[in-house]
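Bench log. Compound arrived from synthesis this morning; before running ITC I wanted a structural hypothesis for how iron/sulfur cluster sits in the protein. Inputs:
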Amino acid sequence: MSEMYKPLEDLGTPEPRASTEQVSLQIDGQQIQVDTGTSVMRAAALLGVNVPKLCATDSLDAFGSCRLCLVEIEGRKGLPASCTTLAEEGMVVNTHSGKLEKVRKNVLELYISDHPLDCVTCPTNGDCELQDVAQELGVEDSRYGLTGSNHQDAVKDESNPYFTFDPSMCIVCYRCVRACDDIQGTFALTVDGRGFESRITAGQMESFMESECVSCGACVNSCPTAALEEKTVIEIGIPEKSTVTTCAYCGVGCAFKVETRGDEVVRMTPYKDGKANEGHACVKGRFAFGYTSHKDRITRPMIRDSIDEAWREVSWEQAIEFTARRFREIQAEYGRDSIGGITSSRCSNEETYLVQKFVRAGFGNNNVDTCARVCHSPTGYGLKTTLGESAGTQAFDSVDMADVVMLIGANPTEAHPVFASRLKRRLREGAQLIVVDPRKTELVDSPHIRAAHHLQLLPGSNVAFVNAMAHVIVTEGLADEAYIRDRCEIEAWQDWSEFIRGEENSPEHLQSVTAVPAIELRAAARLFANAGNAAIYYGLGVTEHSQGSTTVMGIANLAMATGNLGREGVGVNPLRGQNNVQGSCDMGSFPHELPGYRHISDPDVRGLFENEWQVKLQSEPGLRIPNMFDAAICGDFKGLYCQGEDIAQSDPNTHHVETALKALKCLVVQDIFLNETARFAHVFLPGSTFLEKNGTFTNAERRISRVRKVLASKSGKEDWEVTVDLANALGYPMHYAHPSEIMDEIARLTPTFSGVSYAKLDELGSIQWPCNKAAPEGTPTMHVDEFVRGKGYFAITGFVPTSERSTRKYPLLLTTGRVLSQYNVGAQTRRTRNTVWADQDLLEIHPVDAQDRGISDGDWVGIQSRAGDTVLRAVVTERVQPGVVYTTFHFPMTGANIVTTENSDWATNCPEYKVTAVQATRVTQPSEWQKQQEIFNRRQKAFLDKARKPGV
Ligand code: SF4
Ligand code: SF4
Ligand code: SF4
Ligand code: FES
């Protein structure tokens, strides 16, 4: 296309899919070539020609209802709608003429006759497509009158905390309905009535809050008028400025335009060019940003000598000097290895890189770990062992090419909603789904989607399950022998296939372990193996087990055995929980690995870093998080720098964690709120939110995206600057003027990042690593011609039952997960209006188990395990199977981790959150631990209030 053309921002209809040919046509005298399947409207928009439209937008398939986009086409009768008419070879199109203007004006006047003409006082004055079209056509009045009564008397629905629906503004263009159906896949909106009487309604004539709406905001985004509008726009006014950034919640890594007015965020609009989300979002990223200005934010550093003392607000200089002095004293008294640091997947790549550098070079040891320890460390181990790289193999859009998707231990509609919407779209197009989960999650059966198989296995039987699947594939001759011969280590394949053929791995034999009927498992295995493209997506239901790493290797074995790696539509895809789990692992946050997953014992790699950092590095791995806790309780570990991570709430066996934290002589917490861990801290360093800093996050598809500063940091410093100050105060010099310089250093030292820079990120929008000379624009699909390790390795995956089994004392198995509206430990989402959907953790229990115990819906239930007990309310539901109970871990006063145990993955120490043997009983009061927490919290709150009171 000629460079003269300046395409419009909204091209009206989507890009045609899978087009291979082009057609040439003329529009308003200009010639253009477009792919077959392109609408005339899109072709015109590509030329910069604006055809008036109301029901069309390029995120939705053309609908053809408003009749504003009519055009003249030579040789055709009538005036066809340009949005539904496809471009054809030799077509000659005219988009503007006296006749067309007349027809369009008439249509618009009909709309206006039933729409309030109070643009000047309308909250979206200046941000309304109806207003734009009216101005363009010069329509200010309607010959049909202005008192149409079809919609103007309708009552506004303000039930949703984030947006309003004002039917009087609605022009019934169906964009919202189509957005909810086609983009989000929830089907919450319908049209009631016919013709001019039609009205949009949520659910069955319900309010938005009463309907199935999940508050993703896609309808609000697509609405061309103020009928669906963000409440913040009504309150603050239309935005003046927009900055592209990346969501700080989950591992999907959606791109957003942060739209501001003055120093206030008006709204977060999903960014159309964001490659992870393509203009879609979920309720968290889209609306739940209120925590960034919450009154609980702590913005000044605080120190105290003991956790039994009140906090003292101090200057940054005093806090940094106090911390450095305490760490130096501890090292002098207890040795170099007596302190360490923990990085967080909530933080940016640059921040986590600096923390591990600070620990290795400043503390002089390798006692650095990350919260990925407790979620996806088995992914790193399992995929590195089998495929050679510790990361997912595909881009998200790869799922568009999948024929069969197997979802294991993941619940994307709650935890990775934007990916779930993409997956649902593919399933509606005809791909088949196998759900492997102890719970009946939404994708098992939801509007227009029904899983071909729901393998409702028992918690703790994942390895038995993957082995049984592999047994069927190998013994029934379904393996892709040619692929294996070409791509995998033959000796390892032979050993593994001999192992997997064993009767002990047959579905019939393992049925008593998995509780999955052998006949169903065999059918699922055949469906998976016979698919053209079969893809595996998995979550924490795979990794957080005593054999988490084994299951990951078993999953890679399944993919290799069926030839489902190395192209689009297939692959092994870990759905990462937090925004930067992938990045925090990439950046060398584990005690045994330097950035780029290179072992600390490798002298060549160490030499590279020693040369750049000008310091001698320890060659032995340092302490993992659980080792730090054990060493603290033994008295060997005394000081901890914890950036952005709430270990007191998120780590298992809370009693053990709290005992360890209380044993520390200096705990430094850097966070935006006084989180649960900070109650045990001696230094609190105020953090900045993602809106207040520059950096990058890396999502679950290895996509590195920019985080851009929109607001001044409330604490006066970005988090990376604090680490730099600490390092300098401790005597290890660090000097960076901007996080881009930290990324340049990462690129210098890490082969998979060698082509990454802020300039390239700005140019390309985002980059999937590896990005280097061989792949200068990044790598969407990994292991294409060969695996990163060369030949794929089939690891033997013997099933070893967990020691955490149901007993007479603890007859139920507790497993854990997330809800859509809350995020991880809830520190952010609990401080937003998302609490209207979930304001407490609930215990799901099957009706049979509930009846046995006299438990009804809403009762207080005590759950006891060998580690501890807590009390929460019950939900009696068949989503869980008999013998299994389920809860979330978003609320500190439930303290789900008070009951989880110290059991962990054999290879990585990732905790076995997903299996805890418990008893459940009806109770009338909180547990002893909860009562103690209440007292402790009140005391710590008083200590904080004293610090904040001026003059105290
Ligand atoms: S609410 Fe908005 S998007 Fe939906 S039909 Fe009405 S005007 Fe169109
Ligand atoms: S917010 Fe999302 S789920 Fe709710 S009605 Fe709109 S598009 Fe549907
Ligand atoms: S799907 Fe994840 S990354 Fe996207 S908006 Fe929601 S929380 Fe943010
Ligand atoms: S934009 Fe084509 S009919 Fe509405």
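What the model suggests: The first strand starts at residue 22 and ends at 27. The CA atoms of residues 672 and 687 lie 5 Å apart.
ITC booked for Thursday regardless.
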